[in-house]
């Protein structure tokens, strides 16, 4: 049987391959066409039924009377608009006739806010074949767009049908296993794929479409996963999924990392009235205990009509997703945005939804059904025995609380907390900290909880001191009792006397005054006490990062990690798209200098879109500029995109993993070709990262070819100390303040000085205000940090004088260990 699909909107037809989103362009979702819309209403393309409308209104799935399923996705990345610009006029289950209005569109808003208006129209029925396909060019609404032949009856009837099965295995690398964000990504892909996707680990098996089911696998680093895919072309999808899973450990790279538990402090003896806990966010607080007991809100167990209850639950989930999507797309939300994204995946979770629906069908109320379903998942997470997954159980409880409030039409958690109070609870949900009224709490002490929970991430980002795993000590604290929460020393003082309380208050006032002064002065250029100018730049990966960094006082970007452009793509991103992204970042920097690092692929940054042969020792393998020279086509495309996107007045280009001057010459030849092609006469500075001992030692030779040098202390420490930067067991020992690393930095600085080259540092150690005197003393004249410490770094640098810094650097280089250098700086390893 043939199904005729009529254009659901007037516009310009283009091939799916031209859509700037690999999931559609590579037909991972299905085959079809795209339309660049020119009208403000999406219409039904045939007679049939609405299968689903995204809660944000940006996509709709329909089933024709002939059984063909069609997905229409308005624009690219439009889920991030949180529903703004879309007015759904239909709901799941509605019957529609061809030409009925489905979704109203504010095209101006969508065009401005989304990367592209291209609207993929994709057949998702397995085995269906496209007969007629409209050619590229203008089309009117209602004109014939596609003709689809339904799959042969046998194929459609049997679940196996023409569908094949593929099996692949993947090993989870170091990192956090399959946790919320990778699980959300895997489930989104599995849902888009449409076939059956199962992931098994040890004795557990998960439906990959369900985030909670994936989390409940309890898969940890080193686990072997078995991926089974049933559907059209299952092998390609299984391999793709295996790669994503194999890279899931790197997922948290840019997230705010909470401070590590303070083990040293745990070793020092306790004073009377003190007990220990684990540090989740540093800082100091004094204030009255405010206990929050997590009693369950009363709900009805059974009510109403199952159809109505299910509809209420669906509507409440949709409303909650909209609420969370607004936060997820808020550029100022910081880590709360990523957490909201993970929470959306939980609200939309297929397995949770199905379990709740089954309970409702059995007579349960919507609220009771969701609570039961959610608590079962909590138990499953806790029973994995994996601390990091057990920490996520509180996220489920958080969603439950918010969803129940949606169902009841109330505001969740209206507890009034007195200013300055120290919250004491068994555990707390991350959304607790998101309410504006919580901005002035003193600190958080949890009986249970985890140091890497979402609450800990938010607390660290907001400067709220927090201790967890306090056990009975927390339980024994009386409501209203004044305590000192010393998260820096990982302990609680239960009976501070008046002198101690006054001392802590004085200390806190001084810290606040210093932070306020630093922030107030952050926008000013950074000049040392002796008048020497030091540039304080920021490390960036996106335009949002750039806006935040400028607000924190960044004077430019010392390292744009361009890997992020390639990370999520299935094919290397094209020149136009890259140019657009670079232009956005340059604009966000408002004319400040922008150092763009060319693609640093390989080792700890593997890329799905540029796979290379397995290497026994990837950290010493085909990475950085070596990889780029093996794929000059990719480098040439990137160089052209950078030249087109970033104004010459702002631009410097930097090469990663350089070991010798010849690499600069080869890259400059490609850069000159690109400039010639594009008619760019202005010279563009080309610099080298110094992140291998070879480059540090050969810096004088490299500086002949390079316009500037910048230390990558993360890799320099890894290669100098022969310690893998991703090896958790070595985390306490790999330290860029090791004198061997410092001497290499000094050698590189000398090479730059010899040829009058600009010399900076963009590795992680540059983000530590206490390391600034040493780095300046070693010769760095630019420090490129993550954004938040910039005010404190500037404040510190303004107090320094070069002669004292150089003296400090000489003393540090003469020492024998990183511990000794840290002792000299009066600083413990974080
Ligand atoms: C470094 O190695 O210090 C560096 C800045 O590069 P990345 O961390 O991206 O490898
Ligand atoms: Mg590096």
Automatic annotation (TrEMBL):
Residues 21-125 form the PTS EIIA type-1 domain. PROSITE patterns: PEP_ENZYMES_2, PTS_EIIA_TYPE_1, PTS_EIIA_TYPE_1_HIS, PTS_HPR_DOM, PTS_HPR_HIS. Its main location: cytoplasm. Residues 161-253 form the HPr domain. Transmembrane segments: none annotated. One of its GO terms (biological process) is phosphoenolpyruvate-dependent sugar phosphotransferase system. Keywords: Cytoplasm, Kinase, Magnesium, Metal-binding, Phosphotransferase system, Pyruvate, Sugar transport, Transferase, Transport. Residues 251-271 are annotated as: Disordered. GO terms for molecular function: kinase activity; metal ion binding; phosphoenolpyruvate-protein phosphotransferase activity. CDD domains: PTS-HPr_like. It holds the Pfam family PEP-utilisers_N. Its cofactor is Mg(2+). It catalyses: L-histidyl-[protein] + phosphoenolpyruvate = N(pros)-phospho-L-histidyl-[protein] + pyruvate. GO terms for cellular component: cytoplasm. Coiled coil: none annotated. It is found in: Cytoplasm. The keyword Cell cycle does not apply. Belongs to the PEP-utilizing enzyme family. NCBIfam families: PTBA, PTS_I_fam. This is phosphoenolpyruvate--protein phosphotransferase. The lineage of its organism: Bacteria, Pseudomonadati, Pseudomonadota, Alphaproteobacteria, Sphingomonadales.
């Amino acid at each position: 049987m043939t199904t005729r699909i009529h254009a659901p909107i007037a516009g310009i037809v283009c091939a799916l391959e031209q859509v700037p989103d690999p999931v559609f362009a590579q037909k991972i979702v299905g085959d079809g066409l795209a339309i660049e819309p020119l009208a403000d209403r999406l219409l039904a393309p045939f007679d049939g039924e609405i299968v689903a409308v995204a809660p944000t209104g940006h996509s709709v799935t329909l089933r024709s009377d002939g059984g063909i399923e069609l997905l229409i996705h308005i624009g690219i990345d439009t889920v991030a608009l949180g529903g703004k610009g879309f007015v759904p006029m239909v709901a799941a289950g509605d019957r529609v006739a061809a030409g009925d209005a489905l979704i109203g569109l504010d095209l101006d808003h969508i065009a401005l806010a989304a990367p592209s208006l291209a609207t993929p129209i994709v057949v998702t029925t397995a085995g269906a074949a496209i007969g007629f396909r409209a050619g590229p060019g203008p089309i009117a609404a209602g004109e014939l767009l596609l003709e689809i032949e339904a799959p042969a009856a046998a194929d459609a009837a049997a679940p196996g049908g023409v569908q094949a099965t593929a099996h692949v295995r993947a090993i989870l690398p170091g990192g956090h296993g399959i946790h919320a964000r990778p699980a959300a990504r895997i489930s989104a892909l599995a849902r888009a794929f449409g076939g059956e996707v199962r992931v098994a680990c040890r004795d557990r098996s998960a439906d990959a479409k369900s985030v909670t089911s994936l989390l409940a696998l309890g898969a940890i680093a080193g686990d072997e996963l078995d991926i089974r895919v049933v559907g059209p072309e299952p092998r390609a999808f299984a391999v793709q999924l295996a790669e994503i899973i194999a890279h899931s450990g790197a997922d948290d790279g840019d997230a705010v990392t909470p401070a590590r538990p303070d083990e040293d402090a745990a070793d020092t003896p306790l004073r009377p009235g003190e007990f220990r806990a684990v540090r989740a966010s540093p800082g100091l607080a004094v204030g009255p205990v405010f206990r929050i007991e997590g009693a369950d809100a009363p709900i009805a167990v059974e009510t109403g009509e199952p159809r109505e209850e299910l509809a209420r639950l669906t509507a409440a989930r949709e409303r909650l997703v909209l609420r969370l999507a607004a936060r997820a797309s808020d550029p100022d939300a910081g880590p709360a945005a990523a957490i909201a994204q993970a929470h959306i995946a939980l609200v939309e979770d297929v397995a949770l939804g199905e379990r709740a629906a089954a309970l409702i069908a059995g007579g349960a109320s919507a609220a009771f059904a969701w609570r039961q379903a959610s608590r079962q998942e909590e138990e499953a997470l806790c029973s994995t025995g994996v601390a990091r997954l057990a920490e996520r159980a509180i996220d489920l409880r958080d969603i439950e609380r918010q969803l129940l409030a949606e169902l009841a039409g109330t505001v969740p958690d209206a507890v009034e907390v007195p200013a300055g109070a120290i919250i004491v609870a068994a555990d707390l949900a991350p959304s607790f900290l998101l309410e504006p009224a919580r901005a002035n709490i003193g600190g958080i002490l949890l009986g249970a909880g985890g140091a890497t929970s979402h609450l800990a991430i938010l607390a660290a980002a907001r400067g709220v001191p927090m201790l967890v795993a306090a056990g009975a000590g927390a339980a024994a604290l009386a409501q209203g009792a004044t305590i000192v929460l010393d998260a820096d020393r990982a302990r609680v003082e239960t009976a501070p006397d008046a002198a101690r309380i006054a001392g802590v208050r004085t200390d806190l006032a001084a810290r606040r005054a210093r932070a306020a002064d630093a922030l107030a002065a952050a926008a000013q250029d950074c000049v040392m006490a002796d008048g020497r100018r030091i540039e304080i730049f920021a490390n960036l990966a996106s335009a949002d990062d750039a806006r935040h960094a400028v607000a924190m006082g960044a004077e430019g970007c010392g390292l744009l990690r361009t890997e992020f452009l390639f990370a999520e793509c299935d094919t290397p991103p094209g020149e136009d798209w890259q140019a657009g992204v670079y232009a956005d970042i340059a604009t966000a920097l408002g004319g400040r200098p922008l150092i763009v690092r060319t693609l640093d692929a390989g080792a700890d940054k593997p890329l799905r879109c540029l796979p290379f042969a397995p290497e026994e020792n990837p950290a010493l393998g085909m990475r950085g500029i070596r990889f780029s020279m093996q794929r000059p086509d990719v480098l040439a495309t990137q160089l052209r995109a950078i030249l087109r996107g970033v104004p010459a007045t702002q631009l410097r280009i930097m090469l990663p993993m350089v070991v010798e001057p010849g690499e600069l010459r080869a890259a400059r030849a490609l850069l000159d070709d690109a400039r010639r092609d594009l008619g760019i006469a202005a010279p563009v500075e080309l610099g080298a990262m110094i992140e291998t001992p070879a480059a540090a030692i050969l810096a004088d030779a490299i500086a002949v070819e390079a316009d500037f040098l910048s230390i990558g202390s993360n890799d320099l420490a890894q290669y100098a100390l022969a310690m893998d930067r991703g090896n958790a067991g070595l985390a306490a020992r790999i330290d860029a303040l090791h004198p061997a690393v410092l001497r290499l930095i000094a050698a590189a600085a000398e090479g730059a000085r010899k040829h009058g080259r600009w010399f900076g540092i963009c590795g992680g150690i540059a983000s530590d205000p206490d390391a600034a005197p040493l780095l300046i003393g070693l010769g760095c004249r630019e420090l490129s940090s993550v954004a938040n410490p910039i005010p404190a770094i500037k404040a510190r640098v303004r107090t320094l004088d070069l002669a004292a810094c150089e003296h400090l650097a000489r003393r540090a280089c003469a020492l024998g260990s990183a511990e000794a250098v840290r002792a000299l700086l009066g600083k413990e390893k974080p």
